[in-house]
Write the structure tokens for this entry.
Amino acid sequence: MRKAVKKTAVVLRSLILCLVVCCSCSAPGGEEASCSFFAMDTYMTVTCYGERCEEAVKACEEEIYRLDALFSAGDEGSEISRLNREGGGKISPETAVVLDEAISVHEMTGGAFDITVYPVMDLWGFGTKEPGVPDDAALANALSSVGSDKLFFDREGANLKLPEGGGIDLGAIAKGYAGDRLMEIFKEHELTGAVASLGGNVVCYGKKPGGGKWKCGIRDPRGTPSDIIDTVELDEGCAITSGSYERYFEDEATGVRYHHIIDPATGYPAETGLLSVTVVSRNGVLADALSTACFVLGEEKSVQLWEKHKEEFSLIFVREDGRVVRHFV
Ligand code: AMP
Ligand code: MG
């Protein structure tokens, strides 16, 4: 199955070369440059406004490719793949930052967020040509190495040790970290404004040309990718969505649909009556981890968490019946 993931990564990487589309033009209030490409398993678009907009979009695109090559569990050459293959080892400062946040959100969410779901994800085979429902014995075996408390993370010594048969998957947090890095690039290039759409993650910076707040559409999980169910207005920050519609397969024998957000307690896709969760925050890495975690926790437990951290993030749920519920300060 790992071979299939690798093959998909290679195919996607060659697609990247074909799909990079860049353009620049004059916008009301200054220069505008835009770039669309495929990375981290999703389509991305970055638009920058300001004198150095062209340089900035290029820097953003390169940064995303660099982070993809560092964090992708499906790319044999990545740091994460090396750690998974070798049961741990030396880690880079950036991986350490992401691990720190992942472990902190794991604790904050009572284990709903858990990057050690890797062996379970591998069994389900989401993103491969042959996804399928794992058999009970294999799932029980994979689950025995799941639990971020089983990681030995030596922050000072920049070392990670995985439990026997264990592995890590940063798929639920890497794009959030990438968004935070783009925010730094926007600042370094002294842009007047910028917006990036990294799959379900939207990052907004500075002023929107023409004034007013940035508007970010929340996708209708029951519709096509262009159907919007709600809109969030942002000054600056990100809106990050996790949803069961993003990646799934249908079991041929039973017709049952299985999606990619796993409840680490059961090893099965989380079923909590939600179609999507959007987290709005200034902190991208936190928002990405939380959107996945809140999908697993369900509405009630997520709202209890929000009550304690209202200043850090806001929540938008889309329930199974299509109802939208917002929790903002
Ligand atoms: P996201 O789209 O940010 O919700 O991330 C979903 C991805 O994160 C999946 O494709 C898996 O790679 C990984 N994942 C699935 N379930 C979990 C979980 N409970 N905690 C952490 N990562 C997960
Ligand atoms: Mg996430």
In short: The chain has a mean pLDDT of 93. DSSP finds nine helices and 16 strands in the chain. The radius of gyration is 19 Å.
